Amino acid sequence: MVQGKGENFLRDWKDFLGHGIFTTDGAEWANSRQLLRPQFVKTRVRDFVIFEKYVQQLLSLIDGQGQDIEISELFYGVGSLGNADSQFAHAFNEVQRIQNIRARAGPFQVLIPLKEFWKGLKVMDSFIEPFVQDALRYSPKELDEKETKAASETTFLQSVAKFTRDRKAIRDQIVNILLAGRDTTAGTLSFLFKELSAHPELYTKLRQEILRTVGSRTAPTYEDLKNMPFLQHCISETLRIYPLVPFNMRLPLKDTTLPRGGGRDGLSPIGIKKDDIIGWSTVYLHRDQTQYPPVSASSPPAETFCPERWETWTPRPWQYIPFNGGPRICIGQQFALTEIGYTVVRIVQRFETLEKRWGPEDDRVKSEIVMSPVNGVKVGFYAAVDP
């Protein structure tokens, strides 16, 4: 592989992420990807039992009588979990915040106070360790037998424990997956319901599609989710306007040449030396009007939230990359889209009306490791009345 993250990235991030899929290159990265791939096969993506369990917990926390609710807090799990879980969530958020500052500070990161960083890491690791210990109770042979009997009941940790008995390696993979799957999914759901609350006609249209497809009570299947085009358009449009990893980077692992970027017109090849950092902004790419057809009734401005644009618009390669692309494309893409779709359907089934309770001062985002609403998302839900 010609491109990757490089040694400096690993050095800057290893305290938080260790040697996981996001920090390594070459054979070590390939091994991590191979280790995680079985967790995202179609049979697991289609297994909605675990989704339903936690979505029902989420629904029990929503009043349904129009009470103001900070919905993003529920998606992120802050304040709605048990005490130990909540402590972990707060610690995880704080470690991410400080890690983001460290990564951007470059040579000046030695000036950044790290007391809260190390404190947060200690809380995280203390929370994770019992789960690692539980997975290691089984021998690789016992885990093979367990998976053969009931593959869907084998946990992520148990699958990882089949391939390594190294506690640190297991811990690193857990944190990498949490970073990839927790805040990104919660952020997408937060921004989607923020936009739906600002556009009640879109919420009504979405609810009508859901009721036509699965009714007001039936849990959707994988096929149901794929057969709801407006639902898929709403998710795609949210990821277009609010790509959850707003900034990214790669660097060459050896001297190489890019096919474009050189010359006065930027269309000639350009040489790139080993370890030159190449950064880009997915959020700017997705909102760049020059990448879209001229503004018209069917093609609103790039910065406008409009799920209907997907009825006539198909992005070109590398024009729409919420899950990245190439060899390092997000391995959990289908899992994430399915989890988001399932959660949206179950919420919209339950509540007939969604009201906006956030103001202009709340229409801001912050870009740390992932993008999130600055002040959360305040909305009001009104439960549907059964006929």
If you had to describe this structure to a student in words, what would you say it looks like?
The chain has 387 residues and is of the alpha+beta class. It is built from 15 helices and 10 strands. It has helices spanning 6-17, 26-36, 42-45, 49-59, 71-76, 83-105, 115-135, 140-149, 156-163, 167-198, 200-214, 222-226, 229-241, 282-286, 333-350, and strands at residues 3-4, 65-70, 247-252, 256-262, 268-272, 278-281, 351-356, 365-367, 371-373, 378-383. Strands 1-3-6 form a 3-stranded antiparallel beta sheet. The chain has a 3-stranded antiparallel beta sheet with strand order 2-10-7. A hairpin with a 5-residue loop joins strand 4 (256-262) and strand 5. The longest helix is centred in the middle third of the chain and has 32 residues, at 167-198. The chain is globular. Residues 78-83 have low confidence and may be disordered.
Could you outline the blueprint of secondary structure elements for this entry?
Elements: E1 3-4, H1 6-17, H2 26-36, H3 42-45, H4 49-59, E2 65-70, H5 71-76, H6 83-105, H7 115-135, H8 140-149, H9 156-163, H10 167-198, H11 200-214, H12 222-226, H13 229-241, E3 247-252, E4 256-262, E5 268-272, E6 278-281, H14 282-286, H15 333-350, E7 351-356, E8 365-367, E9 371-373, E10 378-383
Antiparallel strand pairs: 1-3, 2-10, 3-6, 4-5, 7-10, 8-9
